[in-house]
Specification:
Blueprint lengths: L7 H28 L13 H23 L4 H20 L9 E5 L14 E3 L5 E10 L5 H14 L5 H10 L9 H14 L32 H9 L2 H6 L23 H9 L3 E7 L7 H9 L5 E10 L2 E9 L2 E6 L6 H4 L1 H13 L7
Parallel strand pairs: 1-3, 3-4, 4-7
Antiparallel strand pairs: 2-3, 5-6, 6-7
GO biological process, one term: proteolysis
Family: Belongs to the peptidase S10 family.
Keywords: Carboxypeptidase, Disulfide bond, Glycoprotein, Hydrolase, Membrane, Protease, Signal, Transmembrane, Transmembrane helix
Amino acid sequence: MGSIDDCAPAIVGCGWLWSGLDLVGVGLDLIYRCEGGGQAAPWKKMMTGREVVFVSCVFWFNVIGLLVAAMVKASFLSFLFSAVVGGGEWMWWLWVDVDVDVEARDALLLDMEPWKNWDLSESRVMEKHFTEMIMHGTQIGNGWIDDSIGQMGTYDYFWTHALNSDKTNTGIHKYCNFATSNFSSTCHDYLTQGNIEAGALDISNICAPVCNLSSPKSGPSGSVHDFDACSNHYVDVYLNLAEVQTALHTKATKWEACRNTPWTDSPTTVLPTINQIISSGISVWIYSGDMDGLVSVTTSRYSINTLNLPVSSTWRPWYSGNEVGGYVVGYKGLTFTTVRGAGHMVPSYQPERALIMISSFLKGKLPPSE
């Protein structure tokens, strides 16, 4: 039986064959670019930023392998290495594009955290690793858009929903300067009275039933038609189980849904950011559950009104099955929709209606009119 060195000539030939295929691929690509005005070949449209780094390494390993193969002609490992990396690079040339001018990724940004300042002067948001995302739309749900408008809208919501007296609402508007948030002691007294008059409601859904843990339950049905008032309790209990926190690799802690952690980087308004997004040609949807007293439909409407946008589609109801699912009005560059019977976390309270609303957003059309 011959030694491994007897195979060296054949392995050398394979290594140079791969190299030749590389050169053919490069040549075809260059020809196409010259004739196509610099455009990449059509078969090379699947690259991401991380692959740029990977295939660059493969290319240089291939070059080094071929140089070693040329100098050490009897080395089996050298030529095997050259053949493997040469083949890898050929597959790269066949499937991907060497340009960092990568395939654009369409995106619709859902539930943008409105307190974050984004530079969206262009309609393209660059991700890491050179990947480009073309954003077509963004949606803000029950969002705290402006501090002064939000505070005033909260107490006006209380009044319009029969949670506050006329006297209290009149006093709030007389003594509270929401534009400056420079509240007098008299203003604070009226605000406190407004909170007392509203009573011990679940402010995130003023019509939500009370969770009764004493009544026997078989657990949530999972149906999009049902709302379980004890849903938050189930989540709290589950996420505070020691085995769950261990499985999640978290520190042992008393978990709460909202800890009221104070922000230090929150702007007083994101109205300029919303204007900037609209000016960039990106569709903006703002929606509100109409039973939310925490960040109410009133605050959303007040905020939108300050933008002074022309109406493109007049106020009308939209439907979920044979029931009114909410109301919608279209402005130039912005759509505002309500979800009837929903609280602050819209999909938790009205999952079926929320699904219709979000589906309409993704399709780029208003919710159904019948």
